[in-house]
Design a protein that fits this description.
This protein is α+β, with helices and mostly antiparallel strands. The chain is built from eight helices and eleven strands.
Length: 295
């Protein structure tokens, strides 16, 4: 939708910001600057946040945001990653606009589901679709400056992600998985989880979760979904141990933790059995979702 503003145009954009899960995560090392290097499989989900951007020409870049929905722990000011993404795009593209963002949240904060990063990626995708073109490499660098996971959300699909998030390789053969996601109701700060991890594991080892064919049997799937950060997260949030056990008792074929937590997910044979488990459980927060299969 567009309307004339002087000799230029105002327009509206809508974007979907999918949640993601980590289908296994290995910490492979620590860089000199303190950042941890990872080897993981990211998969986008069929639920997430929604954004509407109302854009108009302006003498100087200006961004406002209104947050609706699951707002706990979500900043509604310049600290929001979606706001920062809009500013960074306009700076890089030399496109001064007035951008009003309406963000409807469904992804909880501090869950390891990529909410803030996905919102930022969605803003970059949306503005780049109508504004001055940026080379893909420039857009990827801009995304990485906003956060380690943001580059992935420029084109969310099943992918092997390495380094601090900048090495992304589309991964064939990842099927759609029916998941029951659960959350203890207490967010986990990524920095605190990594500090706890460093105290537990002073010398990370390399073990790729992305090598070989996708496992079909539960034992192989459980190994693939292992997350090196989970023991550290469970020290900070002991309820994760109980949630993991509950998912297993409700029939999950395998259980994983996404990112640095605090969301866990159980893999079920289909959406129906995941929904039955959700109804039988008593979770502070839960969601039935499916991953996107490889293109």
């Amino acid at each position: 939708m567009s309307e004339a503003v002087g000799s230029e145009l105002a327009f509206e954009l809508e974007a979907f910001a999918p949640a993601k899960v980590n289908l296994g995560l290995r910490v492979t090392g620590v860089r000199d600057d303190g950042y941890h290097e990872l080897d993981s499989v990211f998969a986008p989900l069929d639920f997430g946040d929604r954004l509407r951007l109302e854009v108009a020409p302006a003498p100087a870049a200006h961004v406002t945001i209104r947050v609706l929905g699951d707002v706990d722990g979500i900043p509604a000011d310049a600290d929001n990653l979606a706001v920062r993404a809009a500013h960074r795009y306009m700076e890089a593209a030399a496109a001064p606009w007035d951008v009003a963002i309406t963000l409807t949240k469904q992804i909880p904060a501090g869950a390891g589901l990529g909410g803030g990063s996905s919102d930022a990626g969605a803003v970059l995708r949306a503005l780049a679709s109508r504004g001055p073109a940026l080379a893909p490499e420039r857009l990827a660098r801009l995304a990485l400056e906003l956060g380690a996971d943001v580059p992935y959300f420029l084109d969310p699909q099943p992918a092997r992600v390495r380094g601090i998030g900048e090495r992304i390789e589309a991964l064939p053969g990842v099927p759609s998985l029916a998941l029951l996601l659960v959350h203890p109701g207490v967010p986990l700060a990524t920095l605190e989880v990594y500090r706890a991890f460093d105290a537990l594991v002073p010398t990370p080892r390399t073990l790729s979760p992305a090598a070989g064919p996708w496992p079909r049997d539960p034992s192989g799937l459980a190994l693939r979904l292992r997350n090196d950060l989970e023991p550290a997260a469970r020290r900070l949030a002991p309820a994760l141990g109980r949630l993991r056990q509950q998912l297993s008792e409700l029939g999950a074929e395998a259980v994983g933790m996404s990112g640095s937590g605090a969301a866990l997910y159980g893999v079920f044979p289909d959406v129906g059995s995941a929904s039955t488990a959700q109804a039988q459980g008593n979770f502070p927060w839960s969601r039935v979702a499916s991953t996107r299969e490889s293109r």
